[in-house]
Amino acid sequence: MSEARIIDGKAVAESVRDEISARSAALLQSSGIRPGLAVVLVGEDPASQVYVRNKDRTAEACGFHSVKHTLAADTPETDVLALVEQLNNDPAIHGILVQLPLPRHIDESKVLRLIKPEKDVDGFHPVNVGLLTAGERSAALVPCTPAGSLVLLKRTLGQDLSGMNAVVIGRSNIVGKPMASLLLQESCTVTIAHSRTRDLPAVVRTADIVVAAVGRPEMVRGDWIKPGATVIDVGINRLPAPELGEGKSRLVGDVAFKEAVQHAGAITPVPGGVGPMTIAMLMVNTLTAARRQLNLPEEAPLF
Ligand SMILES: Nc1nc(=O)c2c([nH]1)NC[C@@H]1CN(c3ccc(C(=O)N[C@@H](CCC(=O)O)C(=O)O)cc3)C=[N+]21
């Protein structure tokens, strides 16, 4: 069998970013307003650092107003809530992202529920979750990683995914559940598999589309993949790599890439797959949020 096509998430993310830059420049020209994005970091989770740096750089490249609030890991919950409230009321801020996970003493869902739904560029507020689940994707802000994964699927398979068997591995609120909602809305036959699923390899073998979002390095093996299937690897796992030198690490996905590439029709790499798309879709959501807050018409959807 021939090797799978490698889906270039970095290149697709760049094209999305170019489109957002152009739309952002047009908005600035016509209304004098820059989309504003605020990121709130509580504590310094090392895994968050790369993400925040990439996000800042991309926001700047899109001509956005971008601010970062870094709070100490022991900041009281009331202070975090007060900051969110301040950002909710700041007209220069159209999108608010509170980096997860939060320290244990902070009630995550309390923080997420306080963010104004129209500023919720992560799409984690119950209002946005509800709209997406109810099939009103176009009225919602859609979580960035699932949205980016769907963009990659459509670039690979075309606009029509109807009737395809999609298996989503992982049931998180951040990826698995919203991904399943999106694929269902595309008329896929959707299975959500998880840690209690019986005979996961057999379930995955039924899939035309596999979305792996479990957070377990290289868990999905090559012989689980139906020949020709499209594989979206959402996992970003940092493993020690002494072969690269002392203290070095490497990133691997949730899919055993070297094996899966022998079976799949197309597959995303890690890094360079879904990660860059997550950031690109955050820019899409921030621009969408800004336009809605300014009562401007919706632009053509990018997926
Ligand atoms: N409220 C919230 N929303 C998030 O979306 C969110 C979050 N919290 N907490 C942390 C995770 C992690 N995350 C990443 C996004 C992009 C890359 C990314 O761009 N990765 C690149 C480079 C990775 C590297 O070189 O280290 C790649 O995969 O090619 C990584 C990680 C978003 N997250």
Automatic annotation (TrEMBL):
Amino-acid biosynthesis keyword on record: yes
UniProt cross-references to Gene3D superfamilies, sorted A to Z: Leucine Dehydrogenase, chain A, domain 1 (3.40.50.10860), NAD(P)-binding Rossmann-like Domain (3.40.50.720)
Keyword terms of this UniProt record: Amino-acid biosynthesis, Histidine biosynthesis, Hydrolase, Methionine biosynthesis, Multifunctional enzyme, NADP, One-carbon metabolism, Oxidoreductase, Purine biosynthesis
Binding site for NADP(+): G170, R171, S172, I236
Limits of the Tetrahydrofolate dehydrogenase/cyclohydrolase NAD(P)-binding domain: 143-293
Catalytic activity: (6R)-5,10-methenyltetrahydrofolate + H2O = (6R)-10-formyltetrahydrofolate + H(+); (6R)-5,10-methylene-5,6,7,8-tetrahydrofolate + NADP(+) = (6R)-5,10-methenyltetrahydrofolate + NADPH
The protein's Enzyme Commission number: 1.5.1.5, 3.5.4.9
PROSITE patterns per record: THF_DHG_CYH_1, THF_DHG_CYH_2
One Pfam family of this chain: THF_DHG_CYH
GO cellular component: cytosol
InterPro entries tied to this protein: Aminoacid_DH-like_N_sf (IPR046346), NAD(P)-bd_dom_sf (IPR036291), THF_DH/CycHdrlase (IPR000672), THF_DH/CycHdrlase_cat_dom (IPR020630), THF_DH/CycHdrlase_CS (IPR020867), THF_DH/CycHdrlase_NAD-bd_dom (IPR020631)
UniProt record, GO biological process: L-histidine biosynthetic process; methionine biosynthetic process; purine nucleotide biosynthetic process; tetrahydrofolate interconversion
Domain Tetrahydrofolate dehydrogenase/cyclohydrolase catalytic residue range list: 7-122
UniProt pathway: One-carbon metabolism; tetrahydrofolate interconversion
Single annotated GO MF: methenyltetrahydrofolate cyclohydrolase activity
Protein family membership: Belongs to the tetrahydrofolate dehydrogenase/cyclohydrolase family.
Its job: Catalyzes the oxidation of 5,10-methylenetetrahydrofolate to 5,10-methenyltetrahydrofolate and then the hydrolysis of 5,10-methenyltetrahydrofolate to 10-formyltetrahydrofolate.
Xref: HAMAP family: THF_DHG_CYH (MF_01576)
Binding partners and assembly: Homodimer.
Protein name in UniProt: Bifunctional protein FolD
Species annotation: Roseibium suaedae
Gene from which the chain derives: folD
